[in-house]
Write a sequence for this structure.
């Protein structure tokens, strides 16, 4: 299928990419129409054309992340991570309509053949086929054409702004900015019974605003026009439907408000209020979050967990439905907004001429695309190959899940050393990019197309166990990023699969392969007797919407602290007992006893300062003290002397080299699966100890 892609230098391409896969509970939609929002999408294109310095100035938060990466992984890894970000294409579009062509078994709202509207910058792209979660789609009623339904997401943005304003019949409302969302806002306010005044510098848009229901319009001298229109009282509410950081626009909005009026920020506007006027008028300021309640809530949008109407009457999906009903009964007329209709094949040219446009409808009726069906998405085969069909040595490798980590930390160490077969990723655009960058033979979005005898699994954590099981049952050599799995039941299933498979399993516990770790291990092996080790991790806080924070992904103790617990097993041997305490949602203190009497203490904290070294290790042995900082500096104190060695790797390159040696040359397996599974058992024991407040025997 074809999809519009944007590169970070501003280039736009219509690319041939794999069709998306059907997500759990979701639907696949063959797009018939989508809408280009000139304001929002032009802003994205212009931002992409910025120089690196301009981008750094615009996003200082991203600069800080790069500096943090450099401190923990080194400048080479940080530079590679930035390069991957800049080279990766991104999709455009967030408002579309089409026909359902596949429905997941968990979805009960839609059927194949339903006409639907779809929203969200994460899924409703300018593409021939899109994969959409349940609550980001709504059925299109009879009487609404597809081109109209394609406006639904944009109309929902305006509707949520109107709901935030809480206007009543007869109130006077000022709408500043008559772009696509501003014009929709003007119309919806008029439908709601408000008297509307529209403001914009563009005279043509003000003419459209009159058609959309504006009682008064103005392009200049706004405060005086408002004063005359309201008899000196001021407007009841102002809705700012503009972007940027203009303090003048905000000051104008506040000046036009009546005493105790309401200011609603609808657009991406950085409102800087003048305190004295805002205070004296006692104004209320509200931000309107996109399409409505549920937006940016992963459990709602991607988990399909709806809010009860009795508690949240107007969610984003119900806003979609309300907008569609207004289109059906003719009250929301979109014809004045539609300044151009273009064929999907000509969409790249349109982005060079967005100035002055309002609503651009993209028509896919002439697109030549295959129509997927539910049968097009089979699961990975679990049949055992015959003994003769899979040799121990192999040279072809597939990758399932090629996000930024895999592209930065793993694939550079594989490229040119193995024949790369199929890369499978959640989105076709990303899969195609990785295929071209690293030289894979094919790109896909379906796990079933990964047919090589070896596979790297780098998906999100909740998919690890199921993909590992399918690959092992198919007799494959498996490398899976940590964690191996999320529950003890999943681990038991993997234990059973390992007893029968002709393949092999390696978990990405890279720290044990780091040069500093190898040197530390030599020192400890040479020191007789028991050891005491402490491992401090300053992990830092996560944003609430980070995917690690999703309970379905297992949490940070299972998802990351398993690294440190595996490191302890590598250094000290077999664990026998653990006790642990949680000091916060993402913080834990654990004490582990080993079979020889050695002890290990883990302090994993999300509460510290990011400027502090992320990982600090100290070991006390027989006449020996060793300190390791971020695996980049190792200091050994022995015989009253200190010896310092510096390193520049956390073990990813060495880990990949060891695994490829096993695959291609028949060298011993670098991390026996029994050790990796033991590390996961210790991880689950730590979790259980925090729950029970009792020590756990292993």
């Amino acid at each position: 299928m074809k999809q519009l892609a944007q590169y970070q230098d501003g280039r736009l391409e219509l690319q041939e990419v794999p069709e998306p896969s059907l997500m759990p509970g979701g639907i696949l939609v063959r797009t018939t129409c989508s809408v280009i929002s000139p304001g929002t999408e032009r802003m994205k294109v212009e931002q992409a054309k910025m120089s690196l310095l301009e981008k750094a100035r615009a996003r200082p938060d991203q600069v800080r992340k790069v500096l943090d990466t450099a401190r923990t992984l080194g400048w080479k890894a940080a530079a590679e991570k930035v390069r991957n970000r800049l080279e990766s294409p991104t999709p455009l579009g967030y408002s579309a309509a089409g026909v359902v062509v596949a429905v997941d078994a968990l979805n009960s709202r839609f059927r194949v053949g339903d006409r639907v509207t779809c929203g969200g910058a994460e899924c409703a792209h300018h593409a021939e086929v899109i994969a959409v979660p349940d609550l980001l789609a709504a059925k299109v009623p009879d009487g609404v054409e597809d081109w109209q339904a394609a406006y639904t997401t944009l109309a929902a943005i305006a509707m949520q702004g109107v709901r935030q304003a809480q206007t009543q019949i007869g109130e006077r409302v000022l709408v500043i900015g008559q772009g696509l969302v501003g014009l929709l806002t003007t119309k919806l306010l008029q439908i709601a019974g408000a008297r509307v005044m529209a403001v914009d510098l563009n005279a043509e848009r003000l003419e459209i605003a009159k058609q959309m229901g504006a009682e008064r319009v103005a392009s200049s001298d706004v405060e005086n026009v408002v004063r005359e229109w309201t008899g000196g009282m001021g407007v009841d509410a102002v809705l700012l439907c503009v972007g940027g950081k203009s303090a003048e626009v905000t000051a104008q909005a506040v000046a036009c408000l009546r005493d105790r009026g309401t200011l609603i920020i609808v657009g991406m506007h950085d409102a800087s209020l003048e305190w004295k006027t805002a205070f004296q008028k006692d104004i209320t300021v509200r931000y309107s979050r996109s399409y409505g309640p549920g937006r940016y809530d992963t459990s709602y949008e991607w988990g399909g967990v709806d809010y009860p109407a009795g508690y949240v009457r107007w969610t984003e999906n119900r806003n979609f439905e309300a907008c569609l009903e207004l289109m059906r009964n003719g009250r929301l007329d979109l014809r004045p907004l539609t300044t151009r209709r273009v064929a999907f094949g000509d969409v790249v040219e349109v982005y060079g001429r967005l100035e002055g446009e309002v609503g651009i409808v993209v028509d896919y009726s002439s697109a030549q695309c295959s129509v997927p069906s539910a049968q097009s998405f089979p699961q990975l085969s679990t049949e055992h190959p015959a003994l003769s069909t899979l040799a121990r040595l192999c040279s072809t490798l597939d990758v399932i899940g090629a996000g930024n980590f895999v592209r930065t930390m793993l694939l550079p160490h594989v490229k040119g050393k193995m024949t790369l077969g199929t890369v499978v990723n959640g989105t076709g655009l990303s899969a195609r990019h990785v295929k071209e960058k690293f030289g894979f033979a094919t790109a896909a979005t379906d796990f079933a197309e990964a047919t090589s005898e070896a596979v790297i699994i780098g998906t999100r954590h909740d998919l690890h166990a199921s993909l590992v099981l399918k690959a092992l049952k198919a007799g494959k050599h498996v490398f899976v990023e940590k964690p191996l799995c999320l529950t003890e039941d999943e681990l038991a299933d993997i234990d059973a699969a390992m007893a029968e498979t002709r393949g092999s399993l390696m978990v990405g516990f890279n720290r044990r392969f780091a040069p500093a770790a190898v040197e530390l291990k030599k020192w400890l092996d040479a020191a007789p007797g028991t050891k005491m080790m402490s491992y401090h991790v300053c992990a830092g806080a996560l944003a609430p919407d980070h995917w690690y924070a999703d309970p379905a992904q297992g949490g940070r103790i299972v998802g990351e602290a398993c690294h440190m617990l595996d490191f302890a097993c590598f250094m000290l041997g077999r664990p026998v007992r653990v006790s642990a305490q949680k000091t916060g949602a993402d913080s834990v203190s654990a004490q582990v006893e080993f079979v020889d009497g050695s002890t290990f203490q883990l302090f994993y904290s999300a509460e510290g300062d990011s400027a502090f070294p992320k990982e600090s290790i100290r070991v006390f042995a027989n006449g020996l003290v060793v300190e390791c900082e971020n695996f980049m500096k190792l200091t050994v104190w022995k015989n009253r002397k200190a010896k310092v060695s510096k390193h520049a790797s956390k073990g990813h390159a060495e880990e990949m080299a060891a695994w490829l040696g096993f695959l291609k040359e028949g060298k011993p397996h670098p991390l026996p699966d029994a050790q990796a599974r033991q590390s996961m058992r210790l991880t689950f024991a730590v979790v259980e100890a925090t729950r029970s407040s009792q020590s756990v025997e292993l």
